[in-house]
Amino acid sequence: MRSLWKTWIEAKAERNALRVSERVRDALGGEAVDQRIEPYPKTSGFLVSFEVELGSEAWNDCVVEVIELGQRVGHEWILSGDVRDDPSGWSIKPSISGVKAIEWSLIY
């Protein structure tokens, strides 16, 4: 199972946004795949999204694992969705400098 991460990054240049995104991925500790970057005019920055493979196989374990990963990169998470079907998390209190907001969701 994988987790999808979206990070809204304050940066004027794409290369700077990618550097900030690299710090997020390093903090998560897993190898990120399918990274995408696009300008995000609403904040004059960038939206960087990527996927991280989870080590667990059981659904319950994956939910706990992605919450734990979220605690590595942010605080005051707002959990939404159905925990049995489509959980996700949102934080506007990231612990990585340059990140304005961060979101995760499970992909199965």
How would you sum up this structure, described in words?
This protein has 108 residues and is of the alpha+beta class. The protein is globular and about 40 Å long. The strands form 2 sheets. It has a 6-stranded antiparallel β-sheet with strand order 2-3-1-8-6-5, covered by helices on one side. It has helices at 14-28, 59-73, and strands at residues 2-9, 32-40, 45-53, 74-75, 78-80, 88-91, 93-94, 99-107. It has a single domain (2-107), classed as Alpha-Beta Plaits (2-Layer Sandwich). The chain is built from 2 helices and 8 strands. The mean pLDDT is 95. The relative contact order is 0.28.
Short overview:
This protein has helices at about 15-30, 60-75, and strands at about 1-10, 30-40, 45-55, 75, 80, 90, 95, 100-105. By secondary structure, the chain is α+β, with helices and mostly antiparallel strands. The chain has one domain: Alpha-Beta Plaits.
Secondary structure class reads alpha+beta
Please report the distance between the alpha carbons of the first and last residues: 5 Å
The shape is globular
CATH class: Alpha Beta
- What does the largest sheet look like? 6 strands, antiparallel
Which stretches are low in confidence, meaning pLDDT under 50 for 5 or more residues running?
none
Number of domains: 1
The SSE string, one letter per element, is EHEEHEEEEE
Spatial sequence of strands, sheet with the most strands: 2-3-1-8-6-5
Instruction: Please state roughly what percent of the residues sit in beta strands, choosing from under 5%, 5-15%, 15-25%, 25-35%, 35-45% or over 45%.
Output: 35-45%
Name given to the CATH architecture: 2-Layer Sandwich
Q: Gyration radius, to the nearest Å?
A: 13 Å
Overall number of strands: 8
Helix content range: 25-40%
Q: Determine the CATH topology.
A: Alpha-Beta Plaits
How many distinct helices? 2
Q: What's the rounded overall pLDDT mean?
A: 95
